C-alpha cells in the first residue's frame, strides 16, 4: 500500500521546469541521415520533449562532429500509467531497431528519466505485468543482444527509475540499495542485467520514485547534479 500511495503522490506532481532547448548540433534527427552517435530519449511523465534530458543530450554531443538525438514518442501520462509506458516501449523498440538497421555504423545511446527510465528498462529487459497503480501492463520481449550488436548499442542511462531495483551493479547514487515503486524481479531482472556493463542507473535515496524516499524535490534534481558524471561515463563508451 505504501508503494501505491507513493506513486499516487508522485502522480499528482506536475512537472514545472522549463524545457531545455537542445543545441542545433544535437537537434532532432532528419529522416535519412545517420549520426556517428545517436541518442534515443524517453521523457519523464508530463514533460515536454525532450524535457530535462536536453541538458544531457547537449553534453553528450558537445565536441562531437556527428551526434544527434531522437525522442521516443509516447503519451508519458499519469493516467493509464502502465498503458502509457507500454506505448513507449513498443515505439522505442521500433525506432531503435529501425535506426540500427538503417545506420549500422552508428553508436546508440539510450536515456530515460522517471517514466522514461521505466520505458528504456523495459525495452532492454522486457516488461509488463501487474501495474502497481492497477491494471496490467502488456508484456514485451526484451531486445535481444544479437539484434543490437555490442558495437552499436554502447550505453544506456536511467534517472529516477520507477522500476529501480536495489543492489544492482549498475546502480549509482545514494539510493543504490533501495527499491523503486515497481522493482524488477525474475526474468525481467535477469534479462536487463545482460546489459550491465553498458547500463547506469542513478537514484537518490530521497527520491520517492526510485528509492521510496520522502523528498519529491529529489526526483527533479538529477539534471542539476549528475549530468556531468553521466555524460563523462557515456564519453568513455562512445
Ligand atoms: C513514435 O515516436 C516518434 C518519434 O518521436 C513519433 O513521431 C511517433 O508519432 C511515435 N509513434 C507512436 C505510435 O506513438
Automatic annotation (TrEMBL):
Recorded GO MF terms: carboxylic ester hydrolase activity
Keyword NADP belongs to the record: no
Stretches that traverse the bilayer: none
Keywords: Disulfide bond, Hydrolase, Signal
Coiled-coil region(s): none
Record bears the keyword Cytoplasm: no
Gene3D superfamilies in the record: alpha/beta hydrolase
SMART domains recorded: Cutinase (SM01110)
InterPro entries membership: AB_hydrolase_fold (IPR029058), Cutinase/axe (IPR000675)
Protein name: Cutinase
Species of origin: Helicocarpus griseus UAMH5409
